[in-house]
């Protein structure tokens, strides 16, 4: 019996040893892995911390972000030209992907501007939060620029295979003729406007007309240069020349559109001035009654001060209209006076009255905002405007969109007034 049980005991001991060894090995492996994970997390955190708190100063980061923002804003504007030429040369279907990517890049630019405004508005923003907003702006701009670079390269390669140079040249010459006729009509409109308005009002249409004529001349020079090298039977080495002509014509078309828009805005402002004068007369009647029944001397004095400001604005605009004048300046005068009067009368009006007066004031302020934004867009389009000017312009455009979408007339009026304020700031920064 003793000799029969001995092997069983040995086998049992061996199994226990194996099991113990296995547990020990597994434990060691688990510990090693755990230590590795902890070390990796520590290194990752340190690396990330170095990425956030690296040697680059906040000033350097903001400077780089501002440079990228300006570069992307310019590139998006240039990409509009590129898209127009691509559609004309290759067709809308071939340019579909570029259209989508350009829209995405424009959205990223808008978001970068929004982040910049958020960073600038928050005076108490912590360094870490400010840094994070700056890094987000940088990442958005870099991503959008990379996308636009990729499509630039794609179109450049495709144009190497372009063989329809002769037909393209004919189309461009026909486009040049149409644009010359359009600019001639704009010149006649300018001559008529010079009898009514100040030179400052006509700065934009004058500049755009001159720019349009200059671009058409450049396009015709390029087309003449390409004509000698165009062969109807083979591949032509004139793609870049024709592309330059098409780009010049596209710019001329934009100049013609800007001219038309400027004249439309002047006419709209002149009409808004007349409407705002009538509304101001009505408000003055209400204000005089409110001053007589004011609940306290301070409220009454405030209303009287606002009445005086509105009366001065009316007198100035009426007197100016008898000579060459600026409806945009008149609109600004009346809007500012009316804002002061609305504020003074706010406590005396009930909710329905506030809605009615907000609706009446909204349209004139909307015209002022659109006109101011249009002027700043033209300034930025000439290049050289700072990132701050472009950021204020983007915020003015955003507030304009909010105002147009708002259903509450009081909120809409507040938004459109904010738009005017940001547009004025952008104008001042763009001219600085």
Describe this structure in words.
With 432 residues, the protein is mainly α. It folds into four domains: 1-48; 61-159; 165-260, no CATH class; 264-431, no CATH class. Helix content is 85%, strand content 0%. The chain is built from twelve helices and no strands. The chain has helices at 2-52, 58-90, 96-121, 127-159, 165-193, 203-227, 239-292, 297-320, 327-345, 351-381, 387-405, 409-431. Helix 3 (96-121) runs antiparallel to helix 4 (127-159), helix 7 packs across helix 9 (327-345) and helix 9 runs antiparallel to helix 10 (351-381). The model is unreliable at 1-19 and 21-55 (pLDDT under 50).
Mean pLDDT: 82
Major sheet: size, sense and barrel closure?
none
Order of helices and strands: HHHHHHHHHHHH
| β-sheet strand percentage | under 5%
Distance between the termini: 109 Å
What is the tally of helical segments? 12
Specify the structural class: mainly alpha
Total domain count: 4
- Detail the poorly predicted runs: 1-19, 21-55
| CA-based gyration radius | 34 Å
Shape label:
globular
């Amino acid at each position: 019996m003793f000799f029969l049980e001995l092997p069983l005991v040995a086998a049992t001991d061996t199994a226990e040893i194996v099991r113990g060894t296995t547990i020990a090995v597994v434990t060691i492996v688990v510990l090693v892995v755990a230590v590795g994970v902890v070390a990796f997390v520590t290194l990752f955190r340190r690396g990330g911390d170095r990425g956030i708190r690296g040697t680059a100063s906040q000033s350097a980061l903001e400077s780089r972000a501002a440079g990228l923002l300006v570069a992307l804003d310019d590139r998006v504007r240039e990409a509009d030209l590129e898209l127009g030429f691509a559609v004309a040369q290759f067709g809308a279907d071939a340019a579909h992907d570029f259209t989508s990517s350009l829209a995405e890049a424009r959205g990223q630019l808008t978001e970068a501007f929004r982040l910049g405004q958020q960073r600038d508005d928050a005076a108490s923003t912590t360094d870490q939060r400010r840094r994070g907003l700056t890094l987000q702006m940088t990442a958005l701009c870099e991503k959008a620029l990379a996308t636009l670079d990729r499509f630039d390269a794609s179109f450049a390669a495709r144009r190497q295979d372009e063989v329809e140079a002769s037909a393209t040249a004919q189309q461009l010459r026909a486009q040049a003729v149409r644009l010359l006729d359009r600019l001639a009509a704009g010149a006649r409109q300018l001559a008529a406007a010079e009898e009514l308005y100040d030179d400052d009002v006509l700065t934009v249409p004058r500049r755009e007309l001159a720019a349009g004529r200059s671009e058409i001349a450049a396009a015709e020079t390029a087309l003449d240069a390409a004509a000698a090298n165009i062969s109807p039977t083979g591949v032509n080495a004139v793609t870049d020349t024709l592309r330059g002509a098409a780009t010049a014509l596209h710019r001329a078309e934009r100049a013609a559109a800007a001219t038309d828009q400027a004249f439309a805005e002047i006419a709209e402002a002149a009409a808004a001035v007349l409407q705002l004068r009538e509304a101001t007369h009505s408000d003055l009647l209400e204000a005089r009654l409110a001053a007589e029944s004011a609940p306290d001397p301070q409220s009454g004095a405030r209303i009287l001060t606002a009445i005086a400001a509105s009366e001065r604005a009316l007198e100035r605009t009426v007197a100016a209209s008898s000579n060459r004048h600026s409806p945009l300046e008149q609109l600004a005068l009346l809007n500012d006076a009316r804002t002061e009067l609305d504020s003074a009368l706010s406590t005396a009006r009930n909710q329905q009255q506030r809605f009615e007066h907000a609706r009446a004031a909204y349209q004139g302020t909307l015209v002022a905002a659109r006109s101011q934004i249009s002027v700043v867009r033209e300034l930025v389009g000439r290049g050289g405007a700072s990132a701050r000017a472009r950021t204020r312009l983007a915020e003015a455009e955003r507030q304009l969109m909010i105002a147009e979408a708002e259903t509450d007339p009081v909120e809409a009026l507040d938004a459109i007034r904010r738009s005017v304020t940001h547009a004025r700031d952008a104008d001042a920064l763009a001219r600085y």
